[in-house]
Amino acid sequence: MKRENKAVNMLMMAFGVIALGSVWGLLECILGGFKPEIAGIPISMGAVMAGLFGIGFMVLARKMFNTMGVSFAVALFAGILRFVAPVGTCVLCASIAIMAEGLIFELIVNRKVILGSINGTQRDFRTLAFAGIIGGFLIFSVGYIITQIMTPLVTEGSLIAFSDLVGILPLIAGRGFFAAALGGISMPAVMAVDLVHLDVNKFKKGAYYTASGIVSVACWVIVLLVFF
């Protein structure tokens, strides 16, 4: 019986992860090509997406399933879907960045003080806001650096020059401000939504599988129809 329940829980988690990753990936595909400005100052959509949707979807997944690695799994599916859509100047860069953000977020979210606030054992929205600020900045900035290293390595088999990498650090830090600011909002905001207090295991299995399956398929179909 325990083995059967574990299998059901794993299946429910898989459906949920794919659905969340697909929605995040769809948003990346649709919004990733925008180039917004504020008072003539260009805003990095990568930073906006990381701080708003990246942090939001990954913390939601961790809250819903409370399993190590689930946030990275969501980012993995989002990155795969982002790779499918020819949006922006470097599709591979965007895909790698999303996956890197998931990996970095896993390292952050597994700290005891953050898990305590996410799981509700010691809920502190100030801690969540601070974690969102730090998390938003780190997943974007470190993810950007990883992207700069991995993209030429994958496409050309070469490494970026150290001097070139150092030269873009001020740019990364400046853009990271937006990811930090939005991360400080999105993490506590997600935790305040009633949905995250629900026990996924109490959902009606048939309705849950149907709804999450439809959401996942719809996201992929939309990407294929819009961009191909």
Structural descriptors:
single chain; 228 residues; mainly alpha; two-stranded antiparallel ribbon; 9 helices; 2 strands; globular
Q: How would you describe this protein?
A:
There is one protein chain. The chain has helices spanning 2-31, 45-65, 70-84, 91-109, 112-119, 125-155, 162-167, 169-192, 205-227; strands at residues 37-38, 41-42. A two-stranded antiparallel sheet has the order 1-2. The model has no long low-confidence stretch (mean pLDDT 87). The chain has 228 residues and is mostly helical. 78% of the residues lie in helices and 2% in strands. The protein has nine helices and two strands, in the order αββαααααααα. Helix 1 (2-31) crosses helix 3, helix 1 packs parallel to helix 9 and helix 5 crosses helix 6 (125-155). It is globular, with a radius of gyration of 18 Å.
Task: Write a brief caption for the model.
By secondary structure, the chain is mainly alpha-helical.
Topology at a glance:
Blueprint: H1 2-31, E1 37-38, E2 41-42, H2 45-65, H3 70-84, H4 91-109, H5 112-119, H6 125-155, H7 162-167, H8 169-192, H9 205-227
Antiparallel strand pairs: 1-2
Helix content: over 70%
Beta content: under 5%
> Which strand order does the major sheet show?
1-2
Number of DSSP E strands = 2
Report the major sheet. 2 strands, antiparallel
Q: Could you give the order of the helices and strands?
A: HEEHHHHHHHH
Shape: globular
Structural class: mainly alpha
Kindly state the mean pLDDT as a whole number? 87
